Amino acid sequence: MNRAALMNNYGPQPVTFVRGSGAELFDSEGRRYLDFLCGLAVTSLGHAHPRVTAALRDQAGRLTHVSNLYANELTGGVVDLLDRLVRQGRPAATTGPSGAEEPGRVLFQNSGAEANEAAIKLARKYQGRGRHVVVSTLRSFHGRTLATLAATGQPEKHEPFQPLPEGFRHVSWNDLDELESSLGPEVGAVLLEPIQGEGGVNPASPGYLRGGRDLCDERGILLIMDEIQTGLARTGEWFGFHHAGIRPDIVTVAKALGNGMPIGAVWARPRVADAFGPGDHGSTFAGQPLALAAATAVLETMMAMDAPTVVRARGETLRGLLDRIEGVTQVRGSGLLLAAELDKGMLGSRTAGDIARACLHRGLVVNGVTPTALRFAPPFIVTDAELAEGVGVVESVLGDS
């Protein structure tokens, strides 16, 4: 391919993948790779999953698009499944405003960034003028549209695009006192990830999320949980906030929802969702039948396999394997979203990105999520043998001088 024909925002791409099956990928030269990144936590059921593939083929032969001006027969089923999973959690431990168990409402989008953009707009519309400020955390990542970039707590990503939209404030991660001190009368929403994925796989403590929920309740502030990377069993619960036993006001979902088909969604409590009226937000392709067919197959398959239980077991296996590698000083994260912090002395002049590139050369797809940490997000269908094989590649690369 002529690389000059593409903009350079992703840089040089070292391999061209042409086929996938389960946890395996194959490149244009026929080489096999283990995929422990899943397209950034997207293909949670693995590549070419037979049920998802069949759903897409069937839907593509019947109807792919009509726009949101007309009804779509698949919408209700996906809404019901998403709502059930968002609200199921652990009700006995749940904290939050009264009416927490009432069915929510869903707005479909095409990606995680769009879902977060819509959630921010919904919060502003609900709270009204004067309560427009959104508080998020440093090292967070919420997307690359102008508003979601402004919400992202990574100043180095802001500079090329200044001035960014107003109304965003950043506080230190996992610091409840600083969060509390930031919540003035102009704040309408708090936007949190249960685990900072792009920020380095940094988990929030359950106490931080519970305390944040309580602070929002006291001040009439909406709590938005960004579950783009963590949602749909990736952490070992259906949603990351379930570990803390809370109920948010708004939840955003994407990545795993389509297992590779572009789709996102915003779930909101009815009283919040009612703030949107006709014309307040829209998207030409959002919730189109092809994407919803994939989402239906994904959700039904995950529920049938009891995905959280599977992920907890596979995650413990992966964590145990990583813990035993010389040169790994810490394994953090939850379920099958883990980061291995690498010993700086063993790295020498190398970075985690260098290690990831060497792993790719030996047939393993991972990425350097920080200069000193590798991110692991393998598919839920990965086998113990594949986990051992993949971790063995990392161990061999780290052992190189």
Structure, explained:
- By secondary structure, this protein is α/β, with parallel strands linked by helices.
- The protein has 14 helices and 17 strands.
- The chain has a 7-stranded mixed sheet with strand order 4-12-11-10-7-5-6, with helices on both faces.
- The longest helix has 17 residues.
- The radius of gyration is 21 Å and the shape is globular.
Structural class call reads alpha/beta
Major beta sheet summary? 7 strands, mixed
Average pLDDT rating: 95
Radius of gyration, in Å, reads 21 Å
State the end-to-end CA separation.
Answer: 34 Å
- The number of helical runs is 14
Oligomeric status: single chain
Low-pLDDT ranges? 90-100
State the shape: globular
Widest β-sheet, arrangement of strands? 4-12-11-10-7-5-6
Estimate the strand proportion: 15-25%
Helix content range = 25-40%
The number of distinct β-strands equals: 17
Question: Would you summarize the structure shown here?
Answer:
With 401 residues, this protein is α/β, with parallel strands linked by helices. The chain is 36% helix and 18% strand.
